[in-house]
Amino acid sequence: MEEELMAEKRPIISTGGRGPAPAGRRRSLPMAARYAINALLVLLVLVVGELMIDGGAVTRYQTSVLQQVGVYIIMAVSLNVATGYLGQLPLGHAGFMSVGAYGCAIFIMRLTETLGMTGRDVVAGGPLVGLVVFAGVVFGGVCAAIAGVIIGIPALRLKGDYLAIITLAFAEIIRVVMLNIDDVLGFELTRGAAGLTGIPSYSNFLNVFLAVAVVCFLVHTMMKSRHGRAILAIRDNEIAAEATGVNTTYYKTLAFVVSAFFAGVAGGLYAGCVGVLQPANFGFMQSIEILVMVVLGGMGSMLGSVLSATVLTILPEALRAFSDYRMIAYAIVLILVMIFRPQGLLGSYDFSLSRVIERVMNRDFPWNRSKGTAEGKEAADA
Amino acid sequence: MPSEKKKRRPVLVQVETPNLIPERDLGTIPVLQAEHLGIDFGGLTAVDDFNIAMGRTEISGLIGPNGAGKTTIFNLLTNVYKPTRGTVLIDGYDTAGKSVAEVNRMGIARTFQNIRLFTKMTVEENVLVGFGNTMRSHLLSDMLRLPSHWKQEAEYRERALELLDIFDMRKYSDTLAGNLPYGAQRRLEILRALATGPKVLLLDEPAAGMNPAETEELMENIQKIRDEFQIAILLIEHDMSLVMGVCEVVGVLDYGKIIAKGTPEQIQNDPRVIEAYLGKQEVK
Predict the structure, then answer these.
(1) CB–CB of A237 and B171 under 8 A?
(2) What is the pLDDT of residue A3?
(3) CA torsion angle for B55, B57, B58, B62 (degrees, to 10)?
(4) How far is it, in rounded angstroms, from Cα B185 to Cα B197?
(5) Which residues of chain B fall below pLDDT 50?
(6) Distance (Å, rounded) from C-alpha B76 to C-alpha B46?
(7) How many CB atoms lie within 10 A of CB B23?
C-alpha cells in the first residue's frame, strides 16, 4: 500500500536532470510547486499582518513605520537592479522616487477630485479606490521610467565615478525643477517649497505589502531570464558580453529604466504614506541612504536589500531618543561593514526556499555531505 | 535589428591575394574577407594591408612574434577597433559602422587571450548568454512567467547542456564559471562563442597555459568543432605543434604586416619566417 502511494507520488517529485553531478538522481521540486509554496507564504504573512493590524496588536504608528519599511524595501530592491545586477553606481535614486511620488500624488488627487471622492472615501477603500491607487502608482512608475530613459541614455555612456556624478547632478536637477516649476511656468502642480499637501492617505499595509511582493517577484523573474542574464553578463565582463552579442547599450538602459520604474512605484506609495511632499525630502542624503541599504545588504542580493532596508528603516524609529547620535552610529556601522565584509552582509547570496526544501528532500545536509565532497574533489582534480 | 540586415545585399570583392581557400570551399562567397585592412594608433601603424579570404570550413592560423599585431587583427575583424583603412566582409556583408554585438550577430564569435568569462554566473548561464540573441521571448512574458517563457527556457537549457556535452562539461553546468579549472575555462569560452551561432570562430591563443596532452586534445576538438558545426576557424597561437597540426593555411605576421602565407609546410621552410623569428644571419 505504502509502496503504491510512493509510486503515485513520484511524478510530483520530478527527477529532472538539472541537479549537479550524477544527473537525474537528485530530486527537485517542480516549478509550479516552488511558486505555489512562495505564494502561499506571502499570503500567510499578509493575512497575519492584516489580522494583527485589525486586532489592534500593531499600533497605528507601527503600521505607518511598516509602510515606510515597504517603501524602502522597494527602493533598495530597485536600486539593486542598477548597482548589484548591472554593476553601475547611480547616486540619484531619490530623484526617480520624487518623480514617482509627485506623479502619483497629483494623478490620484486630480482623479479623486473628478470622481468626487473625498479623502475619507479613499481611506475607506473599495474596488474603485483600489483601481485608482493602482493606476496612480503605475502612473508614478511610468513617469519615473521616462525620467530614467532621459537620464539613462546620456549617463550610461559613462562609467564608475563619472556615472555617479552625472546621476547625482540629474537628481539635483529634478529636485530643483520640482521646487520651481510652478513659479516659472505658472503651473499648479508641485506647489514648490511649500509642499504638496492634502494627499489622501491611500497607502495601507495591504497595498504596500502587495507592491513589495510584486516588485520582488518581477525583479526576480526578470533576472532569471535571458534579459537578466544579459544584464549580469555586462556586470561580469562588459567586453565579453558585447563580443557574445549582448547589446550593451540596450540592456544597460533597460536595467536603469526598470530600476527607475520601481523607484517611481515606491515614491507613489511613499506619497500616500506621508501625505505631504516637499522637494527637500528627495535630496542627496536620501539617495545615499538608499545606496547604503543596498551596499550594506550586499550588492546583487535581493534578500540582503530587503533585510537591510527593514533594519535601517526601523532602527532610526526605534532609536528616536538617540536621534542626535544616529548618523554617527550609521557611519560606524558602515565603516565596520566595509572593513570586515566589503561585499555586504550577504554578499551576492540569495535565499531560495525551494533550494532548502530540495536539500531536505535529498537529505543533503552539511553533516552528511560525504557524497558532495567526493564530487567536489572530482571537479577540482579535473 | 535583423530586419535591416535582410535588406542589404552581399558585396563581392575580388580576392586579390593569392587564393589559398581549400578546394571544398571554392565556388562560395568567402565567409570572412578582409581587404587592405589597417589601423594606426597615433603615428604608429599597428596593422597594415592585412588581407584574408577564408573558406566556409577552413581552419587557418595566424602566427608571429610578440607584439606583431595578431590580437589587434582580431579586434579589427570584430570591430572592437574601427579600422583606419580597408574593409571587413562577413559572408559578403560589410561590417563598417556596426557595433561589436552586431558584428557578432553577423556571424563572427571570438575567445580572448586573457580569459573573459562571466565569472559569477554558472557555466550553463554563460552558454545561455551566448544563446541570448536567438531566444525570442519578450521581456514582459519573461517577467510574468507566461508559458512561452517556460517553453523557451527549457528548450535552450537543453541546448546548452548538449553544447556542454561536446567538451564533456555537463557535470560542471551548475558550477560558477570563475571556479572552473583553467583548461575548462578556456573550453567554456569556446562553447559560449559557439552558442552565438557563428560562421567564423576566432580563437586567441586557445592553447596558452596548456600542457602537451591538453594541447593534443584541443587540436582534436578544434577539428571536431569544424566538422560538426561546419564553420571556419581562425586562430592565433604560439604553440607551433598546434598550428602546424591543425591549420590548413598559416599567415605569418611581423610588425603589423603579413610577411608570408601558405600551407604549414611552405611556412616552415620560408626564409622570411625564420628571419622574423630568429633574426637575420650575418653576412660573413
Answers:
(1) no
(2) 40
(3) 100
(4) 19
(5) 1-7, 18
(6) 11
(7) 7
Chain A contact for B128 (CB, 8 A cutoff): yes
Which of A84, A32, A116, A151 minimizes the C-alpha distance to A345? Answer: A84
Q: Taking phi first (over 0 means left), then psi (-120 to 50 degrees means alpha), and beta for anything else, what does residue A287 get?
A: alpha
Give pLDDT tens digits for A100-156: 999 999 999 999 888 888 878 888 878 888 899 999 999 999 999 999 999 999 888
Phi, psi of B62, rounded to the nearest 5 degrees: -125, 120
Q: Do A236 and B119 touch (CB under 8 A)?
A: yes
Which member of A226, A236, A246 has the closest CB to residue B137?
A: A226
CA-based nearest distance A226→chain B, Å:
6
Domain boundaries, chain A: 30-364
Q: Give the CA distances from residue B132 to residues A139, A221, B120, B157, in Å, rounded to whole numbers and listed in that order.
A: 31, 16, 17, 11
In terms of Cα–Cα distance, which of A68, A326, A87, A31 is closest to A203?
A: A68
C-beta of residue A13 within 8 angstroms of C-beta of residue A357: no
Collect all residues of chain A within an 8 Å Cβ-Cβ radius of residue B151. none
- In the block, cell 516649476 appears at A181
Nearest chain A residue to B120 by CA distance is A236
Asked whether the beta carbons of residue A229 and residue B117 sit closer than 8 angstroms, the reply is no
- Identity of the residue in A21, A232, A254 whose CB atom sits nearest the CB atom of B118: A232
Q: Model ipTM?
A: 0.89
What ranges in B50-177 are assigned the alpha helix state H?
A: 70-77, 100-106, 123-131, 139-143, 147-166
| B148 vs A377: CA distance, rounded Å | 39
Q: Report d(CA A63, CA A317) in Å as an integer.
A: 12
The DSSP line for A83-137 is: IIIT------HHHHHHHHHHHHHHHHHHHHHHHT--HHHHHH--HHHHHHHHHHH
Residues of A in Cβ contact (< 8 Å) with B145: 35, 221
Contact yes or no for B252/B258 (Cβ under 8 A): yes
Cell 557563428, residue? B198
| Min Cα separation B26/chain A (Å) | 29
| Residue A295, all three cell numbers | 551596499
- Beta carbons of B37 and B66 less than 8 angstroms apart: no
Report pLDDT for B28. Answer: 75
A229 to chain B, any CB pair closer than 8 A? The answer is: yes
Q: What is the dihedral of CA B217, B218, B219, B222, to 10 degrees?
A: 130
Q: What pLDDT, on a 0 to 100 scale, did the predictor assign at position A377?
A: 41
- What is the third-level CATH fold of A30-364? ABC transporter involved in vitamin B12 uptake, BtuC (1.10.3470)
CA distances, B158 to each of A61, B142, B164, B182 (Å)? 52, 18, 10, 25
B130 interfaces chain A, CB cutoff of 8 Å: yes
pLDDT tens digits along A352-381: 777 888 888 877 776 665 544 444 444 444
A contact residues 95-154, partner B, Cβ 8 Å cutoff: none
Q: Is B131 on the interface with A (CB under 8 A)?
A: yes
Please judge whether A233 and B109 are an interchain contact, meaning their C-beta atoms are less than 8 angstroms apart: no
Q: Match 557595433 to its residue by C-alpha cell.
A: B99
Contacts of B148 (CB under 8 A, 6+ apart): B137, B141
Count H helices and E strands in chain B, helices first: 11, 10
CA dist B208 and B228 (Å) reads: 24
Chain A residues within an 8 Å CB radius of B170: 23
CA distance A263 to A135: 16
